[in-house]
Every structure is written in structure tokens, then in C-alpha cells.
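OP here, attaching both records as promised.
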Amino acid sequence: MQPVTQAVLRSWSIPPAATFAIVLSALVYLRGWWLLRRAGSPNIPPWRAVTFLLGLLALWVALASPMDVFNAFVLTAHMLQHMMLMMVAPPLILLGAPLVPMLRGLPIFAAREFAGPLLNWSVAKRIGSVLTNPVFALVLMGVVMFAWHTPALYELALRSPAWHQTEHACFLIASLIFWWPVVQPWPSRARWPRWAMVPYLLIADLQNTVLSAILVFSDRVLYPSYSAVPRLFRFSALEDQVAAGSIMWVVGSLAFIVPAIVIAVQCLSKRSALEAADPSRRRETSSFDALLSRLPGFTSSQHSANTRWRGERMEAFSFVILFAAVALGFAALLAAGSSDDDDQVLSFQEASGPFAVAVFAPPDSFAARSSAFSVLVQDRNTHEVLLDATVDLTALPPAGTQAAPISARASNADSPNKLLQTADLDLPTEGDWMLNMTVQHNADSAHFAMPLHVAKPEPGTEYPVHYIVIAMLSVILFGMYFGRRRSSQVERPAQA
């Protein structure tokens, strides 16, 4: 295997917050699945747990694998990532029928006091009714796909890590909503006849085909960022775009047409015909509270008066401790950020001697702090990536300052993208710095100079946003809890 190929396959970036959320979801689901199976529930066979875990694994692979590391360099990798987020992970997750196992896997206090009342809230029911309407789901899927693939929004996602994460969240949420009527996870019931899912999927395939054809048959590169970055492989940006469109066309069509064929065959069978003839089988489920009351070990809100106050206090105390630990851990991981190169953009590109060098750095103007610089070294003529090149960086301070030069040797050991060599430089003062780079490979060497303008960090511009969100969520949850307790205390004398 070629060294460059090995470097690509080793280029994994583990997003700490997303990994934490995925592992936590898997643990909650498995706990709920185990409790349901122990109680003899026939609706959650082992294959559902397997598909749910495979869906979470597909989601994690999309966010952590080389597809994510190279999505700013290669449109094909970015498109594969989008297909995983939209066509693979969502249907697998829904096939696991996650609603009841996830709810059963929560602490009893959280399910009784928060999840149950929220799901039984009339506003939540109306919102859920709109979201699971096949017309809304189909339109939403089309709007999200076309909107985020317009050049303006796509380029925005490439430039901004926050918008890139927003793009991925939109793809995942819209796809979960789209696949809901197709999979129809237990205990939900179809709002349309089953045969209606065939044209539903075919219309979605038509939308996917139109967008794919735009990418395949365009005679120009639609996303300029892919023309600006160095080419890592032996194909042009336009060829990369054609390949990405072809992947969307083939993978998307298979994802839509294969389920349509399966559903059509089911509808032609005798069993499907009997189910379609019985209108009661297509009704929506009854009150979710009634469903919860039948779950083993769960006491619904209407029976909470029978719970001992001491036991309820212990449940509440345990939930507070668990909630604080999970929320603070998640917020700390969000604040720490991920280890990938999503927060870097092309800042410098030049050829000198036998080398072509590209430098990637944070997208905002440099502030007086530690900044990471990632350097790509290629052969000037063949564009081959030179993994064994030596890169020395020296940051020269502005004239007239007392700061000393700062030097570091770049290495790919700590870089998620193993084709890049990364070094951290602490730029202590503002002003116009100069970054000198010396590249050596075998007997050849070359020097590069990159100007840096370091700005003074503005005081008060960084806020602990994640912790503020946790505090607000805590206030909302405990406001709900005490509000419900007060309401129940008022109702008891009235009933007496």
C-alpha cells in the first residue's frame, strides 16, 4: 500500500462531544431494550437493537472517519459523508424502534416527570403530527438537500465550523423525519396507506436525481473552495465534482428505490392486503401516557400520588446528580472542541524550488494566542505529497517589540489529517508578524515567508455559551417539575 494511501486511512478525527452523545444514546437504548426484553416484550427483538447500534456506528463513522477529515479537500469525501448522514444512519436508527427503549432506558424520575408529560403535551403532539406528515417530510427533505448544496450555503459551511455542524444537523434531522413514514417505527402507526410510500420514495428519488444531474453535467466547478485547495489526488476539481454527483445519484437512488420495491412487494402480498383493508391498523397510537403505564418498572404521572415521598426524593436527588454530571461533561467536551481540521482554512499557497507549499490556519484573523498551523508539502511538478519532508516554522515578531522569535518543527503525529504537518505557535503580542518556513526533503530545500497580522483579542468576546445553555435547561426542567407538583397539590383538595 502506498504511504499516501496509508496516511489517508489513518486520518481519523474523534469528535469528543458527538462521540459522548452517541455512546450515551447507545447505553440508554441498550438499558431500555434489556428491561423490555426481561419483561417479555415481543416488540423489540434483538435485530432491532443491532440495527439501532449500526445506525449509531454509521453516524459516528461519518463524523470521525477520513470522510470528515478530507471533506474540505475532496468533494467526493464530503458527498460520501452526506450520504452516510442521510441515507444510511437515519433508517437504521429508526429500524431500531428507538422511542420506547430510549424512554425506558432513562431514569424513572426523568421519564415520569419530564419525558412523559412532554410527549403528552398537546403542543408537542401537534408538532409531532406535522413533522410525521409525509407531505411535510418530503418537502422538508427536498428543501434541505437543495438549500445546503447551493454554492452560497455550501461555501459558508466549508468556511465556518459552526455552520458546517449546522449543515450536518439539518441533514440528519431532516432525514430522520423523512424516513419516519417509510420505516414507521413501533409504536407509531401509518397515517397513509402503505402503498403510498412507493410514490413517496420515487418523488424523493426524482429530487435526488435532479440535484445529482446538476453536479454531474455542470461544465464548471460549482464550489470555488475545491478549486483553490491543492489537489491531493490525480483528478481535477471538476472531475471530483462529477464523481461526487455520481455517488449521490447511485447511492441515493438505491436508498430510495430498493425500499420502494420492498414495500410494493409487501403491498401485493395477502398479508399486506388484509392490513390495508383494516382501518383500525392505521390509527395513531393512543395516549403515550397509557403506553408508559404499561412499561415494566415505570409509574406514570397519573399514579405518582402512590409513590412514597422518600422514594421520590431519592429519585429526584439521583437524577440531579446524573443530569449535572452528564450535562457538565458534555458542555466541557463542546467547549474543548474537536481535534479535526474543520477550524482551518487555506491561508497561504506558494511554489518555490522543487516544492509547492500550502498553509492552513484558523479562518478568523489571528489573535494574540496559541494558533495551529498545518502545512502541506507537495512536489511542484507531480503534486505528490511529500510525507517525509521536514518543515521548520519561525515566527518573527513585529519590528520595535520586545518579543523573541518563536520556532517549532511541524509534525503529523498530532494532526488528524496525516497528509499535513502541524505545529502550534504562541503569538503573544499583536502586530505584523512574519512566518518563515524552511522545507527540506533529501538534498533539496526551499524557504517561504507568510505575513501574519496578529490582532489584540477583544475582552469579553468569549462567553461560556455551553454552560449558559445548561443553566437555562436546568431552570426549565425544574420549573416544569415544581409546576407539576403544585398543580397536583391543588387538584387533590379539589377532588377531596
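Record two, same layout:
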Amino acid sequence: MLPFGMLLTAIALAPLCFADWWGRHYAKVSFALAAVVVLYYCLGLGASTKVLQTAEEYISFIALIGSLFVVSGGIHINVKGEATPLANTLFLLTGAVLANLLGTTGASMLLIRPWLRMNKYRVTAHHVVFFIFIVSNVGGCLTPIGDPPLFLGYLNGIPFWWVAKSCWPIWLTGVGVLLAMFFVVDARNFKRAPTLVREKETAVETWHFDGLANLFFLAVILAAVFVNHPPFVRELLMISAAAGSYFTTKKPVHEANHFNFHPVKEVAILFIGIFGTMMPALDWLAANAGKLGSAKPAFFYFGSGSLSSVLDNAPTYLSFLSALFGVAGTKDIHALLTQHPAAIVAVSAGSVFFGANTYIGNGPNFMVKAIADHQKVHTPTFVGYVMKFTLPFMVPMLLLVWLIFFRS
């Protein structure tokens, strides 16, 4: 597990301590650490099947992330005026709802650019981070489309609407608390803004949409999510939709969105390292999760959540679902839904909510940061994100959800 720990440390501290060096060499670090683990699994353990399975998961991950990035980059939403705290809060609420229809990745890539534009006169780090909290993570807790862990649950037999019926009070609490926190922070920021800025941001609101033909390609990607056989047809459909979008979108639309492939390139490279080096951690978890606790919801909420903050939340979800099967003594998902529904809800909420705790907790997080950085918007470092935003805002919300829903 040492290469995984080294990679997480590098992602957290290298941009802060030696940013120029990291910017030039992060790909080499990611590839080298992944290679150490991959070679160990193939040559030392003879576990090439595990490596191929992880490679397949990575291809599926980057095909979804990349295709949504390209297609959303072909839709330009021009918003002027009304960037008041109330309008911003309603925008984030809309994003939280859309996350369940388009996925957290689709909603994030579609809305992050207009979000930055409508706040351009006073955009600060809290605009980026709360967008990640709400749209890129917590908002997608109601449907299997919303976040990859829930989709894996659906593929394993959990009914499509069971999540919405079981998780909506938790979703409402989590989103509601974060929106209230954001409103208070944004109102203070708005009051500190110069009078001229406030006048510009409260001018008559106008919305203009370009590239709406890309909604067809977006629908193709979302439909492809449910294609399981034969192998890689789903990914080919996604890539084809992305190619169709890219080559049919008019150049002025891409220019208006400042579209380029740098954000998705950075995510693809870093997550090669993450997927490659996290295999030992996930294997250990699969072997030992059932020994770590009982079927108490709090254990599964904090267990799946804590690891989802630094591991990919989809395999973490599956590992804890497997642990729950072991604790319950059954492989029947319907029996599990009857006997331990609160534990399944805890795994679902923990995997989705805690993914907001770090930049690497969920795929869209890093992409939102990369887009904001490209547009010269100040974003906190990895450590600054955790210290300035996760601890004072996310952690109280997560504890409140535990207190209300999972303590007993």
C-alpha cells in the first residue's frame, strides 16, 4: 500500500511545496507509482486478472468522465446578472437536482462554466468548493444515475427507485445544510464586494443557450450507462458520442467555454496512478471489512465514507456491500434490503457524501478544480481544501446526518 500513500501525499503536498516541479513531472510520478504495484501484482503475485479488472474499471471511468466533459463543453450557457446570494443558492439547488438526472459528472461539467461566469465579478474559492460539495457529490444521492456507487448497487439488484425512497430525507438534510451554509458565506462575500460589483451582479438576468444539439449526445451517453454487454460497447458508445459532439460543435461555442483538453488530461493521468496503486488497499478492505464491525449503520456510514474520501467510491461501495453480505450471512440482496435497509442506506450515503471531502474523492472534483484553475479562478490547495472547507463545513453536516439517521 506504500505507493498509494506516496501518491496521495504527493497530490496533497507537491502543488503546495514545489508546484513548478509537480506541474512538469506529475505524470511521471503517477505512472511510476502505478507501475510498481502493477508489476508486483503481475510478476510477484501472479494476479494479472485483478490488474485487467482494474484496467477495465479505469477505462469505464475515464470514458464516462471524458465523454461528459467533451459534450458539456459544447453547450454554452451565458448568464448575466442576478448573481445574488439567493440566486446563487437556487442555482446550486438546481444543480443538486440535475445531478440525479445527468449524474454528478454531467451536471458539474454542464454547470461549472456558467457558474463561474455569473459570479465573475466576485468569484472566490468558496464558489468553487461549495459547487463541488453540492453539485459534484451530495446532490447525486437520489438515483443510480447520480453517482457510480449507486449505479453499482442497481446492477447488484437494488431497485432503481429504492434509493430515492430511502435516501430523500438524508439528501434533503445534506443539501439543505450545505445550501444554508453557502448562503451565509456568500451573503458576507456579497456585502464586502464594491458597490459597482453589486450593481453589475444584480442587473437584469439574461440567459442564452448555444450548442443545444449536444443534448442528443448527452442522452446517448446516459443511455449507454445501462449497456453492460458485450464488453466495451458502452465505452465505445460514449466515445462515439463525444467525438460526434466535438466535431459538430461550432468553434465559437468552444471558444466561449474556453474549451481545451487539459482538465480531462490531468484527471486521466492522476487517476491512472490512483486506480493502479489503490488495488492493495481495496483487496485488504475486501478481505477484512467483514471483520471490522457489525451491521450497525454508523459503522457502514463512516467506514465507506472515510475510505471514499481517498479511494474511488465505487469499489469502496462494493467492498462494504460485500462486507454487509458477510455480516448478514446471506447473498440475497432482497433479504438484505428487508433485514438491514438502514445499513445499505448508510453505505450509499457515506460513499456519495464523503466523496466531497477531498479533490480525489470523486472524479468531477478534480475536473471542476482544473476548469476553475484554467479560468484563473482561485482554488484552495489539497490541504487548504480540507482545512478551510471540509473541516468547518462538510464535517458538521456529515455528523448531523449521522446524528439524525445513523446513530441508533
